[in-house]
Amino acid sequence: MLGHLSETIDRCLNRSDFFDEINRFFESSSLKGETPAINLYQEDDNTVAVVELPGFKKDDINVEVKGTQFRVYGKRELNYPDQSSARLLERNAVKFDRTIKLNNEVDHEKITAEYKDGILKVVLPTKESEKAKQILIS
Q1: Secondary structure class of 26 (helix, strand, coil)
Q2: Distance in angstroms (rounded) separating the CA atoms of residues 20 and 12
Q3: What tens digit of pLDDT does each residue of 33-82 get?
Q4: What phi, psi does 64 have (nearest 5°)?
Q5: DSSP conformational letter for 130
Q6: What would the pLDDT profile of 109-137 be if each residue is shown by its tens digit?
Q7: Are residue 26 and residue 3 in the same domain, yes or no?
Q8: Are residues 19 and 53 in the same domain?
Q9: Do the domain assignments include residue 96?
Q10: Which CATH number belongs to the domain containing residue 55 in this structure?
């Protein structure tokens, strides 16, 4: 991998499409796919996180919230029978750890999480003290 990286850097220094070449390197590296895709969106007073985790078991996924930090981490192990011999191996055992800073603190007592069909959905309600309050002007 380092030899390929060195060659890529050498080519890039002599080319004007530096970032295209770097992107091609990382798209083809073994690092690809080890970080789950996460979407965050706002729905009323909730931040909702949707995490793609195909092939994971629910018990191998962990979610933590501390202050404004949302963390999801876990591992997927692959086990094959002892007497088997590999003919094609395209799936990998994966370990991941993602932390994302949220805009507001979360009400820990109201967090919900659901895992279905490889998709983890976490609803993170905004803490009452963080919500905007309308002030009446006299």
Answers
A1: helix
A2: 9
A3: 578 999 999 999 999 999 999 989 999 999 999 989 999 999 988 888 88
A4: -135, 145
A5: G
A6: 999 999 999 999 999 999 877 677 788 89
A7: yes
A8: no
A9: yes
A10: 2.60.40.790
Residue 8 lies in a domain: yes
Entry pTM: 0.68
Phi, psi torsion values for 77, nearest 5 degrees:
-105, 145
- 136 located within any domain: no
Q: How far apart are CA 34 and CA 100, in angstroms?
A: 16
Domains identified in the chain, total number: 2
Tokens describing residue 114: 């659901």
Tokens of 77: 């192990």
Instruction: Please give the residue range of the domain that contains residue 6.
Output: 1-32
Residues 69 and 42 in one domain: yes
Q: How many residues make up the chain in this entry? A: 138
- Label residues 97-121 b or e (16+ Cβ within 10 Å = b): eeeeebebbbbeeeeeeebeeeebe
Q: What does the block give as tokens for 34?
A: 């080890």
Q: Determine the straight-line distance between the first and last CA of the chain, rounded to whole angstroms.
A: 68
Are 55 and 120 members of one domain?
A: yes
> For the chain, where are the alpha helices, taking DSSP H only?
2-13, 18-28
- Asked if residue 40 and residue 26 are part of one domain, the reply reads no
